[in-house]
Amino acid sequence: MTFFNNIKEIKYEGKDSKNPFSYRYYSPNEVILGKSMREHLRFALAYWHTMTADGSDPFGVGTYKRNWFGRTTKETTKNRADAFFEILSKMNVDFFCFHDVDIADQGNSLQEFFDNLDEMTDIIKDKMKEYDKKLLWNTANMFTHPRYVNGAATSNNADVFAYAAAQVKKGIDISKKLNGDNYVFWGGREGYESLINTNYGLELDNMARFFHMAIDYSDKIGHKVPFLIEPKPKEPMTHQYDFDAATALSFINKYDLQDRFKLNIEGNHASLAGHTFEHELRVARENNALGSIDANHAECQLGWDTDEFPYDIFHITLAMYEILENDGLNPGGINFDAKLRRTSTSPDDIFLGHISGIDTFARSLRAAAKIKEDNFLENILDKRYESYDSGIGKSIVEGKESLESLTKYALEHDQINVESNHLEYIKARINDYLV
C-alpha cells in the first residue's frame, strides 16, 4: 500500500528549478571538501514529528489530515511504518530516529508494551532492509506518561526509576536489533518544578547511576553504542538538569561518563538557553563531545520550543562550519526534529518542509566549505590572537610566567593599544559567502 501516490522521488534539479518537489541545492553525490554531500550531512527524519504529530498546540486541537489511520491502533501503527519508509525512500534520506512510544502502543502493561515493540521492530527491521535505511538513533519516551510527572531517573519514586530502567534496557535491545548508530537520552522531565521540595544532589546522583547502568548493560550485550545527552534549559520543568552544553558536560565529567557520552545539540534548545546554535556546537566540539544534532529553528517571538524547519542560512552556515571543523558528525547525523506549522495541513507539506530544511543545510554546507577553503575565519583568529604567538604572549601560553613576572612586565608596558575587531565588516563578508 502506498500513501503518497502523487509524490515522485525527490531529486536534485538545481537552483533554477521551479519544481517545489525537488532539491535545488542538495546534490547527494556531489563532492565537497573530499566527501559527498550525503556523507557530510547524514540526514535523518524524526518519526514523532513526521508520523505522530497531529498539528495540535497548547491552544488548539489537531489539524492535520492523514490517510494512514486504520480501524484499530495496531493497524494504524503498521500503516505509519509503511508510510514512513515511503517518505524516506522518496526523500532519498538514509537515516531515521524514533521514541519507543512513536512506533508501538503502550498497551495496559509494561509486558504488553514490550510485546508491541517486538512486533513493530520486526516490521521496521524488514523495512530497513527493503529500503536500505539506517537507524541514526532511538530513545525512550520517559516524559509523556503521568508516571513520569516528577521525572524518570530523577524521580522521587524508586518504582518509577525501575520502570524507566526497564524501558531503557528495552531501548538498548532495540538499538542492537536494528543496528542503531547512537542512543539518545533526552531528559524530558529530568529537572525540578520547584527547588523547595527537591533533593538536588540525590536526583543528579541517581541520574548518573542510571547512565552507568546503561553503559554496563550495553557492554554486557556487546552493543557499545555511543550515548548522547540532548541539552535543554527549561520546558517542561522549570529547570532541566541538562540546561545547555556546558552544564551537560560538567555533569558528564563529574560522574566519569566522558568515555561513552557525547551531546546531541538542538538548534531550538540552544535558543531557549539564550545561546546560538553555533555556540552550543562550539562548546561541544572544543570538548570532543559533539555527537549529533537536531536540526530546527526557534521562533523567538513565541518563546517556547517551536521546532520549525531550519531556514536561517547565516546561522546554519556557522553551524556547518563547526561541523566541518569537527571533521563531520559520523556516527551522528542531522536529524530533522522539526514539525510543520499548524496551518500546514496537507500531507504534501511533509515533503515540502523537509525539502526546505535539507536545502537550507545544503546551501550552508556549500558556504561553510568556501569559508573553510579560504581560511577566512581562521585568518581572522590568527590575526586577533597573534600577541600569543611571540614575546610575552607566547611565554604565557608556554606556562613560563607568574603573577610576579607579569607585574614586572606590565609596569614596563602599561601603554596598551587595543585594535578594532572590525566585527561589522566580518559579518558582511560572511554574507558574501551565502550568495
Automatic annotation (TrEMBL):
Record-annotated active site: 99, 102
Q: Name one GO biological process term.
A: D-xylose metabolic process
MF (Gene Ontology): magnesium ion binding; xylose isomerase activity
What residue stretch is flagged as signal peptide?
A: none
Reaction it catalyzes: alpha-D-xylose = alpha-D-xylulofuranose
Cofactor(s) in the UniProt record: Mg(2+)
Q: What does the record say about how the cofactor binds?
A: Binds 2 magnesium ions per subunit.
Could you say which residues bind Mg(2+) 2 here?
266, 269, 305, 307
- Predominant localisation class: cytoplasm
Give EC number(s), comma-separated.
Answer: 5.3.1.5
PROSITE patterns of this UniProt entry? XYLOSE_ISOMERASE (PS51415)
Coiled-coil residue windows: none
User: Which residue range or ranges hold the Xylose isomerase-like TIM barrel domain?
Assistant: 114-286
Gene3D superfamilies in alphabetical order: Divalent-metal-dependent TIM barrel enzymes
SUPFAM superfamilies from the UniProt entry: Xylose isomerase-like
UniProt keyword list: Carbohydrate metabolism, Cytoplasm, Isomerase, Magnesium, Metal-binding, Xylose metabolism
| One of the record's GO cellular component terms | cytoplasm
Subunit structure, as described in the record:
Homotetramer.
The family assignment reads: Belongs to the xylose isomerase family.
* Protein name as annotated: Xylose isomerase
Natural source organism: Anaerococcus porci
Q: What is the lineage of its organism?
A: Bacteria, Bacillati, Bacillota, Tissierellia, Tissierellales
